[in-house]
């Protein structure tokens, strides 16, 4: 057993295995299936093992009975025996099917678990600002939940300003401890109240910031929704995509903007101004674009993350036919030329076919491989590979369509009879760009008469074993790295038979993230002071070693600020610093900074109010705890 954390490997015992020779066919039998328990948001691995000769072909079906192919969500490896499920959600829980040779079935179960989650925030850590009055009591509700099939979480304790809260006449807890009643008879009722709640899988923490005053009611809305950078939809799709923009602070009206202009509902895109919902259905070419939500109250307008709605599409290959000649026993490469546009790219997969039509697939075996550009490699081409036509095709998982390119007729020249074996040679290595938090794939291909044993070393020179972070497939030619971090970036090494090596490179990148919260979306309440100016700093960074993101625009209440010539608003430091002079009464509101790099866009909202009485907020009582 290998322990990745302490870099230790131990062997428990040694078994002497003796094999009797046999060439008989053996019917497949089910010998193993795994159940798997995984935290929501992590990756899961299901295993099915079947015996038999020849090796049975294994296919997978998801919990809904749909056949699974490798895409951004699923990776099928180890000759079909292993199914990896990325970024698991609660909807992934259930019974899956692995099917050998179309008839023999096993049913591994995926159990998705989670620590407590606060519905208001959608995560395990929450902060709420609560305005109180001495004239009435305050009720705080610690309403974290477990997943639907699991036991409800239990409140461990309540604290005030970091100290355990004792019940007395001012504080009363409900029987289940989820509700705290505070009787606000004196000014010391203000402060930071913390609820700590637990289930079998972890702990969640909620901070309630209580204060006397009018400050929150004079703030623009605070948007709590976050969206993916890009959503792909086919034209005329019947299944709707719904995005919900949520915010708080007073009575809020919601709008959506498309390409920097307020958008009005049409027959295909519907906006609900009361709840912030936008629904996309049956889109046509002119409906795609960049959208963002505007949440407006009487004190200003805040802006959500920008969302790109793009077309999921697969165009056609140009028509072509040609002949290619390769020498027997040598490396032979067929190029996948003139590939058409296919979006989203991470759901587009190359498949090679032979013969007429699309029913005959070239499978990846010990002597065939496909590289990162989609080219087909015969690592030691044989006569039986020749006198066939081959075609490169693309499957789009999102549109459920397949297109095949033109035909390549492969002819094989007979080799010199004196050449019995061809030595191993390095023929391909990949360079891969992965976004932090997603997965990376590195490939190495070696040709030759024999199938080499390929081992991998990480950027630090340590040999890589298959575990929760790494998976090695396709006869060792492919290395998958899960949940990549910036520390994973660098040059890796693939070594064939211990002496021939290549060095593929993994580049880990990221859209802009704000230093304050390490996310693409930031809301910051700007405390007032007696100073004549307010300084807003848009402090976002890119991945280490990459150029800092640029500020593309500043907005006020969702409208682009086009002029900085007057004395009220000025920009400094490559547009990263905005300075407000408080001489004008209209300086309050919500200011937005939009920053961009090659990988995406980030948005910060600065909520500025006109009230000269600052809000004094206590420090948070604790940071978000570890998962386990």
Terminus-to-terminus distance: 22 Å
Radius of gyration: 30 Å
CATH third-level topology of the largest domain: Immunoglobulin-like
Portion of residues in helices?
A: under 10%
Our count of domains comes out at 5
Q: What is the overall number of helices?
A: 0
- Beta strand count: 61
- Taking pLDDT < 50 over at least 5 consecutive residues as the criterion, the unreliable ranges are 611-628
CATH superfamily of the largest domain: Immunoglobulins
How big a fraction of the residues is strand? over 45%
Quick check: average pLDDT? Answer: 86
CA-based shape: globular
**What is the CATH class designation of the largest domain?**
Mainly Beta
CATH architecture of the largest domain: Sandwich
Supply the helix-strand structural class. Answer: mainly beta
Largest sheet: 6 strands, mixed
Give the SSE layout.
Elements: E1 2-3, E2 8-9, E3 26-33, E4 36-39, E5 44-53, E6 58-61, E7 74-77, E8 82-85, E9 94-95, E10 97-100, E11 104-106, E12 109-113, E13 125-132, E14 138-141, E15 154-160, E16 163-164, E17 171-173, E18 179-182, E19 191-199, E20 202-212, E21 222-223, E22 230-233, E23 241-244, E24 247-248, E25 253-258, E26 261-262, E27 269-271, E28 277-280, E29 289-297, E30 300-303, E31 307-311, E32 313-314, E33 321-327, E34 332-334, E35 342-343, E36 348-354, E37 368-370, E38 376-378, E39 388-396, E40 401-404, E41 407-413, E42 425-429, E43 431-435, E44 440-447, E45 454-457, E46 470-473, E47 478-481, E48 490-491, E49 493-496, E50 500-502, E51 505-509, E52 513-514, E53 521-526, E54 533-537, E55 540-541, E56 550-556, E57 559-560, E58 569-572, E59 577-581, E60 589-597, E61 600-608
Parallel strand pairs: 4-12, 13-20, 22-31, 33-41, 43-51, 53-61
Antiparallel strand pairs: 1-2, 3-5, 5-8, 6-10, 7-8, 9-12, 10-11, 14-18, 15-16, 15-19, 17-18, 19-20, 21-24, 23-28, 25-26, 25-29, 27-28, 29-30, 29-31, 32-35, 34-38, 36-39, 37-38, 39-40, 39-41, 42-44, 44-47, 45-49, 46-47, 48-51, 49-50, 52-55, 54-59, 56-57, 56-60, 58-59, 60-61
């Amino acid at each position: 057993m290998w322990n990745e954390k302490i870099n230790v490997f131990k062997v428990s015992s040694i078994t002497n295995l003796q094999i009797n020779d046999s060439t008989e066919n053996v019917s497949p039998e089910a010998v193993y299936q795994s159940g798997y328990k995984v935290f929501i948001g992590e990756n899961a691995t299901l295993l099915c093992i079947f015996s038999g000769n020849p090796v049975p072909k294994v296919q997978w079906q998801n919990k809904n009975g749909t056949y699974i192919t490798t895409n951004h969500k699923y990776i099928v490896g180890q000759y079909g025996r292993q199914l990896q499920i990325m970024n698991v959600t609660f909807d992934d829980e259930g019974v899956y099917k692995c099917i050998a040779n179309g008839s023999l079935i096993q049913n591994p179960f995926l159990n998705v678990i989670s620590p407590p989650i606060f519905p208001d925030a959608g995560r395990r850590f929450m902060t709420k600002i609560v305005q109180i009055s001495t004239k009435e009591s305050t009720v705080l509700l610690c309403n974290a939940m477990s997943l639907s099939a699991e036991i409800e979480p239990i409140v461990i304790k309540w604290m005030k300003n970091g100290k355990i809260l004792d019940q007395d006449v001012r504080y009363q807890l409900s029987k289940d401890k989820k509700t705290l009643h505070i009787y606000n008879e004196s000014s010391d009722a203000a402060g930071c109240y913390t609820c700590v709640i637990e289930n079998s899988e972890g702990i969640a923490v909620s901070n309630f910031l209580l204060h006397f005053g009018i400050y929150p009611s004079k703030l623009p809305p605070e948007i709590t929704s976050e969206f993916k950078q890009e959503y792909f939809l086919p034209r005329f799709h019947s299944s709707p995509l719904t995005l919900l923009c949520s915010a708080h602070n007073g009575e809020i009206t919601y709008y959506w903007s498309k390409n920097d202009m307020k958008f009005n509902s049409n027959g295909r895109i519907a906006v609900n101004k009361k709840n912030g919902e936008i629904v996309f259905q049956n889109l046509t070419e002119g409906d795609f674009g960049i959208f963002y939500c505007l949440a407006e109250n009487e004190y200003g307008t805040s802006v959500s993350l920008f969302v790109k709605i793009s077309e999921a599409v697969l165009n056609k290959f140009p028509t072509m036919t040609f002949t290619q000649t390769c020498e027997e026993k040598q490396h032979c490469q067929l190029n996948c030329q003139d590939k058409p546009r296919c979006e989203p790219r991470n759901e587009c997969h190359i498949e090679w076919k032979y013969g007429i039509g699309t029913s005959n697939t070239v499978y990846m075996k010990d002597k065939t491989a496909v590289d990162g550009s989609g080219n087909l490699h015969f690592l030691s081409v044989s006569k039986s590979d020749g006198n066939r036509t081959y075609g490169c095709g693309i499957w789009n998982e999102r549109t459920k369509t397949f297109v095949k390119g033109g035909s390549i007729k492969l002819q094989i020249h007979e080799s010199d009879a004196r050449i019995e074996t061809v030595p191993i040679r390095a023929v391909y290595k990949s360079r891969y760009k992965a976004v932090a938090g997603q997965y990376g794939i590195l490939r190495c291909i070696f040709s030759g008469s024999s199938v080499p044993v390929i081992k991998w070393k990480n950027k630090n020179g340590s040999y890589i074993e298959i575990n929760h972070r790494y998976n090695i497939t396709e006869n060792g030619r492919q290395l998958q790295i899960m949940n990549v971090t910036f520390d994973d970036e660098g040059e890796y090494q693939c070594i064939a038979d211990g002496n021939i090596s290549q060095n593929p490179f993994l580049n880990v990148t990221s859209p802009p993230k704000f230093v304050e919260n390490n996310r693409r979306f930031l809301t910051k309440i700007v405390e007032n002071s007696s100073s004549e100016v307010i300084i807003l700093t848009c402090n976002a960074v890119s991945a280490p070693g990459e150029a800092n993101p640029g500020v593309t625009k500043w907005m006020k209440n969702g409208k682009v600020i086009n002029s900085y010539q007057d004395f009220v608003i000025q920009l400094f430091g490559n547009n990263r610093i905005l300075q407000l002079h408080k001489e004008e009464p209209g300086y309050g509101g919500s200011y937005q900074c939009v920053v961009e790099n090659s990988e995406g866009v980030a948005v910060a909202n600065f909520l500025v109010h006109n009230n000269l009485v600052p809000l004094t907020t206590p420090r948070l009582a604790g940071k978000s705890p570890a998962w386990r």
